[in-house]
Design brief:
Helix content: 55-70%
Radius of gyration: 18 Å
Shape: globular
Strand content: under 5%
Distance between the termini: 67 Å
């Protein structure tokens, strides 16, 4: 049985049995769910998105390249599935999807007191455009710039710029107001 969690451990594996693939896929579900919540801002929609992502990963497991990062591959499937569903819903309804606020999972460099109210931070991050918000979320989750670029399918310089712009916007949101 395969006992691995890190995506880099999959590099070099040429053939993977279906049971091994399913086991490894289950190891990433909480990470995928956190990313899905960040995208959808809705727990139920996030669960559906993760389920669809896992189904697509299983369906297309033979297209996984052994030299690619497994986690990046899964996040790319998740992002593409989200974008496809979003575009289908937008066309069908002619409306932008609206989700309740406050469902974004945040991590920070500092420890947060569990009793501390962080909903104001989640509200500020939710105001960022999707591209900035996604890049920042993956960066906070510990992904390297080049991995984020692979996941989002954009150049490395674009990712660095998006993360910088997201952090700058958050700083302006939280800057103290000067009263003259």
């Amino acid at each position: 049985m395969v006992k691995m969690r890190q995506a880099d451990n999959l590099k070099g594996e040429i053939v993977m049995r279906a049971t091994e693939f399913e086991y490894i896929l289950t190891q990433y579900q909480s990470e995928l769910r956190a990313h899905a919540i960040q995208l959808t801002k809705n727990s139920d929609h996030a669960n559906d998105l993760v389920q669809e992502t896992c189904l697509r990963a299983l369906r297309y497991r033979k297209s996984y390249r052994a030299d690619a990062c497994f986690s990046a591959w899964l996040h790319t499937i998740l992002r593409n599935t989200f974008l496809s569903q979003y575009q289908q819903n937008r066309r069908r309804q002619g409306l932008l999807l609206q989700a309740p606020e406050g469902s974004l999972v945040l991590e920070a460099d500092r420890e947060v007191n569990p009793s501390e109210d962080t909903s104001w931070i989640e509200h500020l991050v939710a105001q960022l455009p999707v591209g900035l918000r996604t890049a920042l979320f993956l960066y906070i989750r510990g992904y390297a710039y080049h991995e984020i670029a692979d996941i989002m399918g954009v150049p490395l310089g674009t990712i660095k710029n998006r993360i910088h712009r997201a952090r700058s916007r958050l700083r302006t949101f939280t800057a103290p107001v000067q009263v003259a």
